[in-house]
Amino acid sequence: MKKAGILNRHLAGALAELGHGDGVLVCDAGMPIPAGPRVVDLAFRAGVPSFSEVLDGLLAELVVEGATAAREVGQANPAASTLLTGHFPTLTLVSHEELKTLSADARLIVRTGEARPYANVLLRCGVFF
After folding, report:
1. How far apart are CA 16 and CA 129, in angstroms?
2. Residue 70 CB-half CA count within 13 A
3. Catalytic: 96?
4. Pairing, β 108-111 against β 23-27
5. Which DSSP state fits 71?
6. For residues 66-83, b (16+ Cβ closer than 10 Å) or e, as one string?
7. How far apart are CA 93 and CA 73, in angstroms?
8. Which of 10, 20, 87, 96 is catalytic?
9. Which of 43, 55, 71, 101 is the 20 to 30 A CA-CA neighbour of 108?
10. Which three-class secondary structure state does DSSP give residue 56?
11. Rounded CA separation 113/32 (Å)
């Protein structure tokens, strides 16, 4: 049994399968989930687990070379916007509609229990060397 890091076996296994350039969408409970990508649904109750908790856990284990979020996050969810710009100084912003379109090409979608709008980010995996 693992004693640290991501303990959810489905999420840990999905992360181990990722490669350079793969997309990982971390999303709130209301984001439409496209058909195709593998989904690990962590949502338990509204707000649990939070977007920030899941994002922080993923960033502790993944190499990320880029991130894309909806530009609407700045106005609609300042806390998520601050979190994202703190983690990703070169965050790419697109419309929410474009983010939904881009999410169809993600390799993995991790759904949180976040109940605040636009708490979504598409991560692009990098390499550790």
Report:
1. 16
2. 25
3. no
4. parallel
5. T
6. ebbbbbbbbeebeebbeb
7. 9
8. 20
9. 71
10. helix
11. 13
Q: How confident is the model at residue 1 (pLDDT cuts 50, 70, 90)?
A: confident
Residues 129, 121: Cα–Cα separation, whole Å: 24
CA distance 39 to 51: 16
Q: How far, in whole angstroms, is CA 53 from its chain's centroid?
A: 11
Residue 14: predicted pLDDT: 98
Record the tokens describing residue 18, joined without a space.
């990722």
For residue range 5-57, list pLDDT tens digits in order: 999 999 999 999 999 999 999 999 999 999 999 999 999 999 999 999 999 99
- Among candidate residues 117, 92, 124, 111, the one with its CA nearest the CA of residue 24: 124
101, two tokens: 């379109």
How would you label 23-42 residue by residue, b for 16+ Cβ within 10 Å and e otherwise?
bbbbbbbebebbeebebbeb
Tell me the two tokens of residue 90: 């070169």
What pTM was computed for the model? Answer: 0.96
Residue appearing with tokens 């100084």:
89
